[in-house]
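Cross-posting from the modeling subforum.

Setting up a comparison between two proteins and wanted a second pair of eyes on the formatting. Protein 1 (sequence, then structure tokens):
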Amino acid sequence: MPGIIDPETINVMAIPGIWSPVQWELTEEERINELEAQTVAGLLWSVDIPEAILRLLLQEAEITRIFEPPENYDPEIQGEWNPEITANGFRNPIELVKVERETNYLYLEYKLGDSAYWYIEIEPEKVTIARF
């Protein structure tokens, strides 16, 4: 039903977001423009919706180049890590630490960096996002 949030079907996983840009031949200027245009959007697309919302609200979408798989990287889900491919990740980690799912209800806790904790509570007609 449009306008209703279904907490039972929101995908939530405790794996880090990664993304690889275009890999064909580009001039240096084209490559830089392509990276700038695609990286943040691609990374936000790669993470779960609640994490993307939290990152956008907190302006925590700064990226960094990564050369090794980040902590909690799951090759079964995300594919084997290939060091030959350019990959980027978020500079500031957000860790999913708790998930509670019931009928018409989803509760998530995220840890940002070393100390900040946020929760997201999703019901069919209400979303609560708060720091605790």
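Protein 2 (same layout):
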Amino acid sequence: MGGNYSYLPSEPASNNFFCITFRVPDSIKVIDCDPPTLEIVRKAIARGYRLGLRQEYDKYGSRTFVLAGNPFKVGCSKEEAIAGKQVACTLLQDLAHKGWQVLNSSELCRNKDLSSWFFERTNEACVNYDSTVCCIALSGFDKFQLVNFPKQLLAKVADAVRRTWTLGIQEEMKDAYGSMEMKMNGNPWSASERGAVEARRMILEIIRAMASEGYVLCMSTSIKDTTDSLFFRSASAADQPSCSELGSPDASFVLSLNRHDRLRLIEAPSEAQEVVRNVLLHHWTSGLTGDRDYHGSREFKLGGSPWWTEGAESVRTRLLITLLLQELRDKGWRLVQTIELCRRLNDKSVFVFARAQPESSLHWCLSLHSKSVLRFVNAPVEVVDALRLVIAGNYIHGIKTERVFAGYHQVRLRGRPWSSHNGNDHVHGRHMMLGILEAMQQRGWSLVCSADVSAIYHHADSGQDYPVDVHSLWFGAINKKPPIADGAVGVGGASSAPSCE
């Protein structure tokens, strides 16, 4: 069925969620959006994208806006790239003012599509009508572009860079099409060894500086198929406690997945380091082959190649990340955001944590593979049953095969929802994902993050390399009892010991 076009169901998968997808080189696609919200998107694009709109059209139930120029293409002009970030800021800000908060950004296709943003309708009492959104884009190999940025925060960012990047700043803030640009010495977005550690420490220090000034990191996303752009919004009263925690130097740290087998903790307090070490020792059956100080970070070397794998072997990696998220949350560390800041294909996502109240939690992973496979890792039986119903009701092409393995539950769909090369199966995949978000919310599960933790890249003779697998998504719930007693972990309805075998 891949390559065919078919209409989305007439009813949206959810009234509380919708999706915006960015596509190479110039398009914004809106899925499952009601008419009033679609009008907000239309006005935000008209107001926020100064190069103009080329066309707008409806195709098989989704709405596409085609922008002038090529703002989402690698190698586009600086003016186009900055204009793309500016319209993204406007979309986030205008939708937030109307009660739509961005929930997460995820990369769900192997080619052509960039990030998909999932929005959640918020309670009217929680809407911050005065919020503003700004962006720090990681540009090229050595630049920051600061878009819609408050002038009083420019010096804060520059100071954070000076404190953490020993090679220093080559060019201070200069105007670039209404935004500001900073160029550093060296190449922080492709650095290795000491530079790789410093680049991650620099990003953490910028997040802390922004939090101390009342700006929350609301999303990290790729809208140009390179490194991520970080979007911050001014904090509401409800955000202030989180800002205070994150702005404190001893209350946040980075967990970074590097090379094929390294896990690095940067700025992590000793108690967080021991939590991670214990999870690795008890749950990674290939063992630890190294534990050392690495340019001021703590580096663990894992047996095997957990961050560069595919197929069933990659399930072990996702279970390990699931258990790390779960144990850190139990011990008082919440995940703030995942970031992809490196142009090196064998470096994966960066996880930013902040101190929080310890709360008993359960996490599971929705792992998306190849062109059409979903795997439910560490998911309780009731979650698997709910997901099967959601897929049956919201994915028009249906299920091709279904299998239960010792460790996970697998569903293979008809069509190619994780490939946008031909047809519009990828749109049906987004529609289904919105149904999954709705079903999980109703059952007390929250989307924790979306991340790349193990994808091998396919080398394309023409065009860019692309990942064999796409992002995985993690869900968490507070005070959920584990599906198996005595601390063991249930995986997709099958019993197993709490190890990544």
